[in-house]
Design a protein that fits this description.
About 30% of the residues lie in helices and about 0% in strands. By secondary structure, it is an all-alpha fold. It has one domain.
Length: about 90
């Protein structure tokens, strides 16, 4: 329906045979999260009022907080992959 199910720093889906290779990544089964957010003031107020969630703390991904609380985060597939500003591990 265009809504995220989960976000992770690890590849999803998990590949039992080992890390995904170039062919796996090119297959479309794996997508990269860019992380550009837009929300209503009401949704933002609700988001920041929520307590931290265990999954958010484990993955260190703030978008897991509203997902765990039942809020919806819409996602879209874009054609190009821009450069990243990832948090160092």
């Amino acid at each position: 329906d265009g809504s995220a199910l989960y976000f992770s720093r690890a590849p999803i889906p998990f590949r039992r045979a080992g890390p995904p290779g170039p062919d796996d990544l090119a297959s479309g089964a794996y997508l990269r999260h860019i992380g550009v957010y837009a929300c209503t003031p009401r949704a933002l107020e609700r988001w920041v009022a929520l307590p931290a969630h265990a999954l958010e703390e484990l993955e260190r991904l703030e978008q897991l907080r509203p997902l765990a609380a039942g809020m919806s985060i819409g996602v879209a597939v874009v054609g190009a992959t821009p450069g990243g500003v990832d948090t160092p591990e």
